[in-house]
Amino acid sequence: MKKKLSILKSDDPRLHIPAKLLTLENIKTKEVQDLIDGMFNIMHSTGAVGVAATQLGIDMSVFVYGYKYRSELPQHPEIPDAAIINPVIKPLTDVMESAYEGCLSILNLRGLVPRYRDISCKYLDRYGNEHSREFQSLEARIIQHECDHLSGSLFVDRVSDLTTLKFISQ
Ligand code: NI
User: Fold this and answer.
1) I need a labelling partner for 136 at 20 to 30 A (CA). Which of 4, 50, 92, 106 fits?
2) What is the pTM of this model?
C-alpha cells in the first residue's frame, strides 16, 4: 500500500534533517519510483515549481521541479518536469540575483532571496543516469532552493533583508 505523502510545515524539525544520498539500487526500487511520482503529483496539484523529499519527512536526496507560466510567477520559458537525485551544485560565477521566493512548507510567505545566477549541477536522473549541466536564472534558483531543502534549510534562512518578508493572501 502506498504511503500518503504530505508536506511538513515550517515548525517541523524533520525539515532540518539533511538528506542521505541514494544508491543506484535504491533509485530502482518501487519505493523511490513511487515517491518521485507522488512528488510530481504534489507539485502539480499545488502549483509549486519544486518539491524536495525532505519536505515530506523523507531523508532521501531527491527533488522534482518544473515550470509552466502562471500569472503569479515570473515570465520565463517553460522548464520540463525532471527528477534530480544526489545533486551537487557549484556556482560558476560570483554574480548573484535577488528574487522573491515562496515555499510549500511556509505557505503564503514571500521573501527576497539572493542566489547565484549561474551554477553547474551534477546529479542522477530517476533512471540512475549521470548528468552534469549548467543552469541559469530561474532554473538555477529553483535548483538552489531545492538543494537547500536537501541540506535541511529553508529560503527564509537566506533572506538577507528581513523587511522584504511579507505574507500574501491566497
Ligand atoms: Ni521550498
Assistant:
1) 106
2) 0.95
